[in-house]
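Quick question, first post here. What does this chain look like in 3D?
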Amino acid sequence: MNTTTYIDLGIIQRGQGRKGNVVVRLNHDMPHFDRLNTLLIQINHTLVPYCVEQFSRQHRRMILKLQGVDDPKAVHYLQGCSVLVPQEMLPQLSPQETYLDRLLGYHVADVREGSLGTVQAIYTPFQQNLLAIDYQGQELLVPYHEAIVTHVDHEQQSIVVQLPNGFIKAMY
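> Answer (accepted):
Ran it through. Tokens below.
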């Protein structure tokens, strides 16, 4: 039985240049990614390992040169595929940091409103991470930002937030 947990780093968006470089939109701000030399790409529900020959970072995107991906045709085959790494290959983060994938299923409570629900999905559009919470049968999007998230307890799988006054009413 395979019990390895994988972290979804992001999606291959497109190629860059003519030498097979790929642009990955990151789901996480990964300051330590430079320490990894292999990663997995999910192709048709199969995890395929690739060696990383080169990379560069620009905040929430990364440009990779993968071994064996040498032209735009090969890149096109990988567009839209998820890039993953085994969790044990990633460095431990500080208590203030977390890999967002770990938050799926966590219970969320607001300091004033009380229980809100559980994290069903995580959206990472542009520069803002959003927790999609099942709130009374509807999706409530809460920014995952230090001004709102006051505490994350991985042992209890819970998140405490302090939403601005009127936030929930404004959403519904």
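The chain has a mean pLDDT of 84.
Residues 100-171 form a domain with the SH3 type barrels. fold (CATH 2.30.30.240).
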